[in-house]
Fold:
Amino acid sequence: MIVLALDALDLNMVKRYKCESLMQIECGQTSLSEFQLERTVVLWASFLTGKNMESRIPLKTQWEFKLKPEETFFPFFKTYKAIDLPAFSLKENNHAEERKLLKKYFDEETTVEEYDALAWKNHEENKKDFFDSLGRFDMVMGYFDLADAIGHLSFGIPEKMEKVYVELESITREVKSSSDEFTLIISDHGMKPVGKYGDHNRNGFYSTNRRLALNLPRITDFYNIIKGVAQGESS
Amino acid sequence: MEDYLSNLEKRSISIIREAKAQFKNLAVLWSTGKDSTATLWLCKKSFFGKIPFPVIHIDTSYKFPEIYEFRDKIAKEWDLDLTIARNEESIKSDMSPEKGKLACCTQLKTEALRNFIKEREFDALILAIRRDEHGIRAKERYFSPRDEEFRWQYADQPAELWDLYVKPSEDFSHMRVHPILHWTELEVWQYVKRENLPINPLYFAKDGMRYRSLGCKPCTVPIPSKASTIDEIVEELTTTKVPERAGRAQDKEKAYMMQKLRSLGYM
Structure:
């Protein structure tokens, strides 16, 4: 099984840029109605455990929060690889560096170009790790925060966001051309413009390469779907 | 109109009295602008002429000379317990808008206030913000908790049903109290006229320009206007389509994003 965890991938943007590979066979919006805030770490932890983790993850220490493997769906697979997953296998230095530059940008100590360059560099690193892992594990889950990282400072700049969506579409196209494994593409939340900036919204995205006929699934609903896939594959 | 303004006033006075009853160490912020001067007047009325807590003026050192003159004159006339909060360290290190408007505001306003709150151990502050000023302020409550980083969890605020302003049980650094949150800019001016309140002369048109919102001199620009009396300002506001804070330079979208990213834990 392959899971592409695409932070802030927005259903409307996927449709706007006609990203057909990202849309797969079935796609739609997820429901975040059970959450008070669209916090990245909380949403991914909830996806991994099938439980609303909002009360368990304090805001101040959220980036250090780590789930044990047995709390997640990963042990349902014989072998798995989780790349840069918030609340599980986050590359802490990369993300701390991104957040540091984000703060510097608001303090007017750096430029958006420098921040973008770091986001793209981290993205390329994850992309390499992801493609190196494909075919070597029963489950590969790759996390890419490009749409979120670039979007926060530039969601209102169409040329930049188109480049991001084209990149994510090309990753998906490559995955689909090399594998017909069950593939889930999921985002934690969507994004809306605030002038040239971007703010989280509840327009989260999912798509699958099998027809599941889901109707506004909660992000926590995918735990059992993934468990079912794992059990189906092992039987 | 008289009844309407009286109702606004009554509600504000009840909020101010509630704050005084609930908090041990209360203070009111005063920029000398029309809103905070009207709020000071409401505080005076709430306690029969004498404000029983400190009045804080945050001095960035970049204010208009008219602001300092007005501040000192009114402080004397109204017998205020006035305290000036300044971030001396940043002022000495030549912090200025040229080094970045947001960084300057953060150092000279936010940090000055943060240090002062810590030093004087205030547990609540009265501020003269209004919901109609800006989109982000429309989400505010009358009683709005802040943590020690001044973070505001706007998606997780106490409900304020039936005029019950509940002090939240969880930890917070201090409470922001907003007694004129429900007023509009026009209503503030109508109240200024009714109560015959003193007003900073910068608000009145001179050579076809006037200030509609007062901030620091380098970051505030006047708007074209012929309104040189309160009546003319009221008349102007009934027809204008220009936002109140259009003359303030700080990038509001950037400020909103910074606030939002902080509330999401990014910074």
